[in-house]
């Protein structure tokens, strides 16, 4: 971006992000929203004029982690004070939303508490805190659209793959989960706004876009044609942007996995064969207590349908062990379901009672040692199926989108269509391109391969983005 002569003197901003990809997206947008006020990002907390902790509340000790992190921030602030400099401190994200005033009361070092629906007000809050020294808490769910208010992403950063939030909040109220309380009611951005954002990203050289939402497949927007757009309609439209080569979306709820979306996996080559579809538990009794709105059988039927549309699809999931009342038998049903589906990737967690959620009040809490044991045996099974999926790709030729440098000199790193990390020896100039790679080996967490010698660069890498 061109430097404007009247640009305010550069101040430094440090953001530490916890939690999900939506928080990562929000952190980027906060940094962009603060740019006009002269804030430049720094990786060093010690030199920051403004520190933002973007927090997560999903599992245990999340709030405690924030307070201990604040202890570290306080030390940085004191060190800067000794040099005669001020540091402003903001807590954002889901702990900010859930704890609000309590953070201000417990942590005198905090100047601003701002919930995820109020980030468009951040610049104003920072300016107010700087001029008045007053501490503020902004955790309303305002009626206005925060995305419309946040500035468009400025050009200037080279990025191959980008996240775009299309839907936020959740109306599902699974009994264990804080998200409906921290992110509010389900809300979809308009297709016009999303298409414009993706087109801007494409113009900057982005080749892959991952659409984000707590329940992304519940997306429903008012299309420019007057019709209601589903996630499938949105993906179809985005696939029409020539330089966007890959589309992904996450996270989906089984209940909202409609036929149009399933069929798209078989129809749209730009939609990558990877789907994150949490099932949480294999026992119908536990699924009902979780208020998941599907049975184990519904889930397996759905998986069969998806595999029919796209047989090679990599499935990923989330699973909770030790939900209140879960017996050994219930847990074995979880193991059995995971064993039958055979996930390419999975995230598994011990149930953690979250304040304010219905499940936290249930009496039959599972003791910690049982949770620990169940998690270990589940993870052994998931690990085995992940490695076996990776092994199946050895010997295949896969298109890899290169995103950055590798771990060793001379190496670059990218992703297969199945979201596996792939390392090859190749020139850095290939970053931003897709090349066919012959996969030669599967390591514990990544694949290695060799670029097809007949590879011809499709187009020059966009220079100096
Ligand atoms: N919206 C997504 C997931 C959001 S949270 C969905 O519905 O699938 C990400 C994952 O964290 C959840 O899928 C769940 O497995 C886990 N999780 C959420 N609350 C939890 C809790 N109280 N204890 C343990 N794991 C939890
Ligand atoms: Fe939480 Fe359930 Fe909503 Fe997912 S669907 S965000 S697990 S309440
Ligand atoms: Fe955490 Fe909030 Fe995301 S609780 S997982 S940061 S929606």
Key terms:
22% strand, 34% helix, pyruvate-formate lyase- activating enzyme, binds S-adenosyl-L-homocysteine, tRNA-2-methylthio-N(6)-dimethylallyladenosine(37) synthase activity, S-adenosyl-L-methionine, single chain, five-stranded mixed β-barrel, Rossmann fold, 465 residues, iron, tRNA processing, binds iron/sulfur cluster, disordered N terminus, OB fold (Dihydrolipoamide Acetyltransferase, E2P), alpha/beta, globular, binds FE3-S4 cluster
Distance between the termini: 10 Å
In the CATH hierarchy, the third-tier topology of the largest domain is known as pyruvate-formate lyase- activating enzyme
Choose one word for the global shape.
globular
CATH superfamily of the largest domain: tm_1862 like domain
The strand order across the widest sheet is: 2-1-3-4-5-6
Mean pLDDT: 92
Helix content: 25-40%
Strand content: 15-25%
Structural class: alpha/beta
Number of strands: 21
Number of helices: 14
Radius of gyration: 23 Å
Name every ligand kind in the structure.
Answer: S-adenosyl-L-homocysteine, iron/sulfur cluster, FE3-S4 cluster
In the CATH classification, which architecture of the largest domain applies? Alpha-Beta Horseshoe
Summary?
This protein is an alpha/beta fold and 465 residues long. The chain has 14 helices and 21 strands.
Give an overview in words:
By secondary structure, the protein is α/β, with parallel strands linked by helices. The chain contains 14 helices and 21 strands. A 6-stranded parallel beta sheet has the order 2-1-3-4-5-6, sandwiched between helices. Strands 17-18-19-21-20 form a 5-stranded mixed β-barrel. Strands 7-10-13 form a 3-stranded parallel beta sheet, sandwiched between helices. Mean pLDDT is 92; it is low at 1-6 and 459-465. Helix 5 links the parallel strand 5 and strand 6 (136-138). The longest helix is centred in the last third of the chain and has 25 residues, at 368-392. The chain folds into 3 domains: 11-138, 3-Layer(aba) Sandwich (Rossmann fold), CATH 3.40.50.12160; 157-392, tm_1862 like domain (pyruvate-formate lyase- activating enzyme, Alpha-Beta Horseshoe); 394-451, Nucleic acid-binding proteins (OB fold (Dihydrolipoamide Acetyltransferase, E2P), Beta Barrel). Helix content is 34%, strand content 22%.
